Amino acid sequence: MVDVVIRDEMIRLGQFVKLAGAVESGAMAKEAIAEGLVEVNGEVCCQRGRQLHVGDVVAVDGQFSVSGKKEVFRVSH
């Protein structure tokens, strides 16, 4: 699991997938999400604008632990 630091207390799924390094660009994040390759809390999520909050787990072909200013998001591939 990789820690990814974010600046705000919330981040949108598309932004997070790119920030975590799971894809190389925003366009690739959009495509991966639209194709159902991204899971949030164990369920496929096709909403690029979905807000991620403390304790959410995101899976995109690997695992990430996302750290914010005060809170931690969990991401897994």
Automatic annotation (TrEMBL):
Record keywords, A-Z: RNA-binding
SUPFAM superfamilies: Alpha-L RNA-binding motif
Pfam families xrefs: S4_2
Domain RNA-binding S4 span(s) in chain numbering: 11-71
CDD domains in alphabetical order: S4
Superkingdom of origin: Bacteria
GO MF annotation terms: RNA binding
Record-given protein name: RNA-binding S4 domain-containing protein
